[in-house]
Design goal:
The protein is an alpha/beta fold. The protein has 11 helices and 18 strands. The N and C termini lie far apart (47 Å).
Length: 369
């Protein structure tokens, strides 16, 4: 009987016939680790079966969208996303917690990022080199049993970074208010400071500010530019140092994801955990993610712990300027307070380390450990 064993620890796929190991293939699983939640971009674990084989006979590097071939990918193509190439093996989850795998479109497939094979880098699927994908595809029948073994060895290093007054000198919510009118700006700034200083619950402040401002898409675009215009000195070096030392940087913010995303792209940060904001077809504000964790106190802890469960990190660091960042201290190995833009006394005296520049030796040496 043919079966597949996949090790997230080793980043390898073993193909067996009975007890005989036929071949081992190097893979790339989810960069965000393991998990079962829809939209999490995490690799599910447990028992599966191949539910369908797509792409038999098509040329190598055929690109698929919605499981339909749409052309041939070339290394010269500008699109550098997580493309599905060459062949697809669909997976059907056989356990209760992974039963949604087929609906999540989690596949074994060929990839345009063969340079990342051997390390977690996908959006949740199992990637193979394209030549390997053709070989595996031809070797396995429908209903082949697949077992994905969960991570057991701590490897990842997670660097969570606040955005407002940490990576950028602005407070995005305050800048949205500034684009409204002076009275709204004053009221919102007072609420922001009350929340960041720990004087008012974050959940109470969050809803009030958004009902006062009610931003439109043009305001969002303008503030997104301001984030970049006011990038904190040394931020680029800080992130480059982290990535070169194999840290996974994650922006963890109570700000809004579409405002922060352009800054993240500029800095080369793939992961942004921030509040979604919604608009209707006319670009008018229609709400925000009221249930997103960072809209409430200790919400950052929830996201950090979710990442910890998913990646089994060897090291976790948080850096930020506010009370919500300080709250993460019990759930990280090191909480770095940042006072380069705003110095908050509670954070300064509660943090494990206090810095006023992202390029201070204490921070860069920490990332180089």
């Amino acid at each position: 009987m043919t079966r597949i064993d996949i090790s997230l620890d080793r980043q390898e796929l073993d193909l067996f016939r009975g007890d005989e190991l036929v071949r081992t293939y190097r893979i790339s699983s989810g960069e965000k680790g393991m998990g079962f939640k829809e939209g999490s971009f995490r690799t599910p674990t447990g028992r599966f079966a191949i539910a369908g084989k797509i792409g038999d006979g098509v040329p190598i590097h055929t690109r698929f969208k919605a499981r339909v071939p749409v052309g041939i990918w070339s290394p010269q193509d500008v699109d550098s996303g997580d493309l599905v190439l060459t062949r697809i093996l669909q997976l059907h989850g056989l356990d209760q917690e992974n039963a949604n795998t087929l609906d999540r479109y989690i596949y074994i497939h060929g990839t345009n990022r063969e340079d990342h094979i051997g390390a977690p880098a996908s959006h949740g699927c199992i990637r193979l080199a394209n030549v390997d994908m053709i070989h595996l595809f031809d070797e396995v029948p429908d209903e082949t049993e697949v077992f994905i073994h969960p991570l057991t060895v701590p490897k990842a290093k997670l660097l969570f970074i606040d955005c407002d007054s940490t990576l950028s000198a602005i407070e995005g919510i305050d800048e949205l208010a500034r684009l409204s009118n002076p009275a709204i700006f004053s009221e919102v700034v007072a609420l922001t400071n009350a929340a960041m200083n720990g004087d008012l619950p974050l959940a109470e402040v969050f809803g009030k500010r958004m009902e006062i401002i009610r931003p439109d898409t043009s305001m969002v675009d303008e503030v997104a530019r301001l984030y970049i215009d006011h990038i904190v000195p040394g931020a680029q070096e800080f992130i480059e140092t982290a990535k070169s030392n194999h840290w996974i940087p994650v922006i963890l913010s109570g700000g809004f994801e579409p405002l922060i995303r352009p800054l993240a792209n500029l800095l080369g940060i793939h992961h942004v955990e921030a509040v979604p904001i919604f608009f209707n077809e006319f670009g008018t504000y229609s709400g925000y993610g009221t249930d997103f964790p960072t809209t409430r106190n200790h919400g950052k802890n929830e996201i950090i712990n979710e990442w910890k469960r998913a990646t089994l990190p060897a090291r976790v660091v948080m850096i930020g300027d506010g009370i919500s960042d300080l709250e993460t201290k019990p759930d990280v190995d090191l909480m770095v307070g940042f006072g380069g833009i705003i110095s908050r006394e509670k954070v300064k005296f509660g943090a494990d380390i206090w810095v006023e520049k992202l390029t201070e030796s204490s921070v860069l040496s920490l990332l180089s450990e």
